[in-house]
Amino acid sequence: MCGLAGVLQNNQAEGDLTTCARRMSDALKHRGPDGSGLWVDQAAGVALSHRRLAILDLSVEGHQPMVSESGRYVLVFNGEIYNHHSIRTDLEALGRAPKWRGHSDTETLLAAIEVWGLSLAMQRSNGMFAVALWDRQENALSLARDRMGEKPLYVARINSGWAFASELKSLHHVSDFKGVLNREAITAFLAYGYVPDNLCIFQDVLKVPPGGIYKLWADCQAPELTKYYELSGDI
Predict the structure, then answer these.
(1) Which of 2, 20, 200, 220 is catalytic?
(2) What is the CA radius of gyration of the chain?
(3) In degrees, to the nearest 5, what angle opens at C-alpha 121 toward C-alphas 59 and 80?
(4) pLDDT, tens digit, for every residue of 133-189?
(5) What is the secondary structure of 46-92 as a DSSP string?
(6) Adjacent-strand bridge partners of 47
(7) 20 is catalytic
């Protein structure tokens, strides 16, 4: 288990992104006691943070946030890709593999995204995961979850843009996150004993859907949703 969090803010935003991202990350320390990392581009208004539980690659080469070989993408990742060795083999067979720095599935995923794009890389990845990907070319943030939604990922609309995190408690460390309770979600919880996937206990907070990708721009009022996987209606 690892944890990820961050913000994407517009040009009117004030405050130190590094401080904000560090506070968000500290709230997730229990998810990743083996290390922490920050990547901040104050001019672009983006900050990514990560709490690491080292499993597949215990070296510094598995440290996150991780930057792709081309420098275009920056990734924070929670989970495990079970078939990442075969993905590496496929990339090598195509002659598109980078010079591998380590043995982590995070590095494999970044290389796959460089070659196939995020959606196809997700389709080729078998596992449980939550992903936040910053595209420095498009100035866009993408948030994705595994097919069954095993790994959590929340995204909140804030006055200055967006905030995201593996757990809701992290969002409370963003200065303009309101944390207003969602009455519809409370009603559903009292009726069913849980909050349905299409709701969140707080207003203006979304759950990234299983098998889905939210693409965000700082000044957009709504995220762009694409699905790389849908459960068949025949089961």
Answers:
(1) 2
(2) 17
(3) 40
(4) 999 999 999 999 999 999 999 999 999 899 999 999 999 999 999 999 999 999 999
(5) EEEEEEE---S--SGGG-SSEE-TTSSEEEEEEEEETTHHHHHHHHH
(6) 7, 40
(7) no
